[in-house]
Specification:
alpha+beta; two-stranded antiparallel ribbon
């Protein structure tokens, strides 16, 4: 695993100290990461989910994209999950919903894996 990828994982663990951070080396210098026990927001069931993504060996020069959330995620109001969310996917063998929140002009300093996950969570939680 590349040194910068390990730094990203260390930052994720620091940013989410109460959450389990699982990882698997991707064999190319990067890692597949799953953060468990995250709250997607009150408009969703279940109340805690996992979110996963891949940090490639090009990190921090490549966007951490896409993210995947627990495939059991549903809106409490019965509506479709909506824009930028694709159900019926898998991530690391788990049923998943793909979340497409690409950063068009990533900044090496501002767009760390932890900050990107925080932005994805904020986007998810603020959807109506």
């Amino acid at each position: 695993m590349e040194h910068k990828v390990q730094d990203a994982i260390d930052e994720l663990r620091a940013a989410f100290p109460k959450n389990k951070v699982l990882l698997r080396d991707d064999g190319e210098g990067g890692a597949y990461v799953i953060v468990e026990g995250l709250s997607p927001g009150p408009q969703y069931t279940p109340t805690t989910v996992w979110i996963g993504f891949r940090i490639t060996f090009q990190y921090p020069y490549a966007d951490v994209y896409p993210h995947f959330v627990d495939g059991s995620l549903r809106r409490n109001d019965g509506r479709e999950l909506g824009e930028a969310m694709a159900p019926g996917q898998t991530f690391e063998g788990r049923p998943a919903v793909q979340i497409s929140r690409k950063t068009n002009r990533p900044s090496v300093k501002a767009d760390t894996a932890a900050r990107k996950l925080l932005r994805v969570l904020a986007w998810l939680r603020n959807r109506t």
